[in-house]
Write a structure and sequence with these properties.
Length: 253
């Protein structure tokens, strides 16, 4: 049985909406899934895109899936008490590697501090970022929007990676994940209501949130990922930009 990692945030609801696959599901935050995949504790997972790049020689990608946005993403926010151009210190979350590097790319002069220490701004991701948008009147800067304004490209926060060599049945599992996602897109109201019951957000809010997320790993998403990795390398966060290695060369329709 394939050990499948699942990010514990609401953004995974569409992909797991009606997943028809016999798997051993392991839930965790992105950095935890990074560690477990690289440590051999799970077989496949959505992991931070920067961590894939750092260990690309040990991993392969599912060619049709990612987690990204074209513009605002809502669940990755920089909450700042000062104007963005005045931010000199950022409290960063330990839950996400990609978002921390993205802050360094977008705000290269800002010093990173552990979350909870006094800072000009705070990086929040996932459900914590969504809750903050409801509860905190402090100005929020959406990292997906800031990235698009800078590059004109989508931002790929996570890729679906598996061990190399891939386990038997990985192609069939990708087919099942894609089928689940397509069904979620075909019945958005049902998805929103079911996710609302599980995660506690209003259905209307979730429906709008799911529309902003991008799960298809197409040509524009790959171009956005390469651009991010190039800027991460220039910022000293990556030794080199790797080639994207997939579990299969031909991508099904």
């Amino acid at each position: 049985m394939i050990r499948l990692g699942r990010i514990g945030y609401v953004n995974m609801a569409p992909v797991f909406h009606r997943l028809d696959a016999d798997v051993d599901e392991v839930v965790g935050v992105p950095t935890e899934l990074n560690r477990r995949l690289l440590g051999g504790e799970i077989d496949v997972a959505p992991i931070s895109s920067i961590e894939y790049a750092r260990h690309a020689d040990r991993l392969r990608l599912l060619p049709r899936l990612c987690v990204g946005s074209e513009g605002a993403v809502d669940s990755i926010q920089l909450v700042s008490r000062v104007p963005l151009e005045q931010v000199r210190t950022v409290g960063v979350t330990p839950e996400s590697a990609t978002s921390v590097v993205l802050v360094k790319v977008l705000l290269p002069e800002a010093e990173h501090l552990p979350l909870g220490e006094p800072a000009d701004a705070t990086l929040l991701i996932g459900d914590a970022a969504l809750r903050s948008a409801f509860e905190d009147p402090t100005p929020h800067y959406d990292l997906g929007r800031l990235w698009q304004e800078r590059t004109g490209l989508p931002m790929v926060f996570a890729v679906w990676a598996t061990v190399d060599p891939p386990p038997p049945g990985i192609g069939e599992l990708e087919d099942a994940l894609v089928a689940s996602l397509r069904l979620a897109r075909a019945e958005p109201e049902r998805l929103a209501y079911e996710a609302s019951e599980r995660y506690g957000y209003p259905p209307g809010f979730l429906a709008r949130y799911f529309e902003k997320l991008r799960y298809r790993f197409g040509p524009r998403e790959r171009a956005g990922l390469y651009t991010f990795l190039e800027l991460a390398r220039d910022a000293g966060e990556l030794d080199e930009v790797p080639e994207l290695r997939f579990v299969r060369a031909k991508v099904p329709a």
